[in-house]
Amino acid sequence: MTAEIPDIVTSFLRMASSDDPADAEAIAACFTEDAEVTDEGETRRGRVAIRQWWRGPATAYRYTVQGRGSLARGDGCYVLFVRLSGNFPGGVVDLAYRFTVRDGLVSKLVISAPTRGEKPDPAPPT
Questions:
Q1: What residues contact 83, with CB distance under 8 A and at least 6 apart?
Q2: Could you give all domains of the chain from N- to C-terminal order, each with its CATH number?
Q3: What is the pTM of this model?
């Protein structure tokens, strides 16, 4: 990742990309009580709905998450560019995870394709 990313976002991504994904309680604990998650065009509101999302669509397939860069948008907003590879239809997809962080927790997560012209910061030289 290339932008400074809050610890709670890093924790969520670590759990989400684990070979043994975290349980729904651990994932939900990353979010505020009134958080929203939008994935596959559907918005879930509140920790109960986020737990259901994690137990259902979010973990319906086995996949790995590879970070490909990030942007800090300001006002607690961060975009992480990831590549998922797994046993879902198509097998590989590039996505943007758009996080909003409030009081040290994720208050909003929108998962979708990167928008036109949206690119991660260039990787630092090695």
A1: 65, 66, 68, 92, 93, 94, 95
A2: 7-112 (3.10.450.50)
A3: 0.88
